[in-house]
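Re: [ENG-882] Designed sequences occasionally contain unexpected residues at chain ends

Forwarding the minimal case from QA. Structure tokens:
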């Protein structure tokens, strides 16, 4: 059975403790990036909780760059798919890539909730990773060579992959993930991002009654060796939900 992060996956991971969804001022919504049901799930939870502010784990740079480049990315993607076998667009890696070069559902749902309810939304992340990786999309990620290579990777329905990721998230709540305290740039940037997000969320809580934050689930679970965002915000007693919990109607 597949695992990751040093965790052996189980078919039925332990459920999270039940929490009154109205009892906290801070709602942390753990997402799987590219979840095909993510928009609808997040919308359902936001509608239920009615936050005064929605924040998203995305940078302002990423938003601006994506808005400028998305038409080009979509054109390159269409051209690349035309050279691939029929049905290639259903491959797991291709579907994940398609979500990666589109405006993230986390941004779209925060924007639409803001328009519907008049509550502001804010991008909170640092732009360092986006500055390094987004310019590579056109020349590397969407190149014909890479698209063909993706078809050689392991395949499964995207929905199954996403469901497994949410199971991993729940297991990580019971068995904390290990984050190496390495001196490499990736590890250091992770720590800098976590500190930045904590500061921004604390600032938001000082100005708004109820804040909902949409971010990748890895940021919302406990870590061994180093405190992450979840541990550092524990004094606010945040309510943590993973998006697939919207399916339960709890």
């Amino acid at each position: 059975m597949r695992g990751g992060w040093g965790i052996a996956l189980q078919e039925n991971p332990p459920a999270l403790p039940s929490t009154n969804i109205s009892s906290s001022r801070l709602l942390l919504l753990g997402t799987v990036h590219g979840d095909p049901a993510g928009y609808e799930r997040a919308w359902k939870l936001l509608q239920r909780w009615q936050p005064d502010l929605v924040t998203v784990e995305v940078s302002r740079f990423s938003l601006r760059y994506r808005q400028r480049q998305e038409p080009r990315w979509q054109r390159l993607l269409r051209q690349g798919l035309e050279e691939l076998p029929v049905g290639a667009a259903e491959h797991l890696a291709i579907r994940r890539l398609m979500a990666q070069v589109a405006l993230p559902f986390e941004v779209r749902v925060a924007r639409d909730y803001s328009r519907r309810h008049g509550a502001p939304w804010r991008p909170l992340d640092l732009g360092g990773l986006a500055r390094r990786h987004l310019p590579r999309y056109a020349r590397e990620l969407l190149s014909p060579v890479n698209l063909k290579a993706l078809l050689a990777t392991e395949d499964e329905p995207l929905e199954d992959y996403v469901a497994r990721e949410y199971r991993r998230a729940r297991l990580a709540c019971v068995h904390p993930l290990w984050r190496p305290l390495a001196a490499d740039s990736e590890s250091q940037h992770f720590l800098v991002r976590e500190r930045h997000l904590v500061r921004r969320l604390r600032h938001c809580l000082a100005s708004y009654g109820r804040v909902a934050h949409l971010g990748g689930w890895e940021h919302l679970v406990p870590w061994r060796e180093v405190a992450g965002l979840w541990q550092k915000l524990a004094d606010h007693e945040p309510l943590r939900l993973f998006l697939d919990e919207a399916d339960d109607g709890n």
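QA comment: On inspection the terminal residues look reasonable. DSSP finds ten helices and nine strands in the chain. Proposing we downgrade this to a documentation issue.
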